Amino acid sequence: MSIDILRKLGAFVLIVLIQATMLDHIRLFGCATPLLYVYFALLFPLSYPRWAVVVWCFAIGLSVDIFANTPGLAASSMTLMGFLQPYLFGMFIPRDADEEFKPSLHSLGFSKFFYYTTMMVLLHNLVFFSLEWFSFFDVLSWALDVLGSTVITIALILIIEHYRKR
Questions:
Q1: Is 90 exceeded by the pLDDT of residue 154?
Q2: Which of 10, 38, 81, 92 is the most exposed, fewest CB within 10 Å of its CB?
Q3: What is the chain's Cα-based Rg?
Q4: Where does the pLDDT of residue 11 fall: very low under 50, low under 70, confident under 90, or very high at 90 and above?
Q5: How far apart are the C-alpha atoms of 100 and 52, rounded to whole Å?
Q6: For residues 157 and 121, is the Cβ–Cβ distance under 8 A?
Q7: Higher pLDDT, 141 or 126
Q8: What is the pLDDT of residue 1?
Q9: d(CA 96, CA 111)
Q10: How far is CA 73 from the centre of its chain?
Q11: Coil, strand or helix: which one is 32?
Q12: pTM of this prediction?
């Protein structure tokens, strides 16, 4: 088994455990839930096979759904993220980047990584909360959930990324 697969599997288990045991029980201001498992989809390098990114993202979404009792919400949102991740990541990499270029705060720089993270997290939250609400009768509550969870998730990802490779 490749060391890369073992690292991904370790990160997968750690992120699902943190999400299921701690973060799913946090609801700041009644509208903001940190969704750390989105961070898993951000870290795939450019050379990673696209089908594998989709499978990994579906698997982490399904695992979160099982623990959070949200049938298919995280799985569908993460599957879409896995499908779009290579395209969105490609918008922020330098033209002369090699195939093993990995997204991180240090490799992309703060502004590019921030925009990349914001696009991915906002995309996930729009799909996730639209499926969860399945109605636009209370647009203000839906928008507060999307924006609140996006802000708290981005802040958590940036904090982790800042301390990750020091």
A1: yes
A2: 10
A3: 15
A4: confident
A5: 15
A6: yes
A7: 126
A8: 52
A9: 19
A10: 13
A11: strand
A12: 0.85
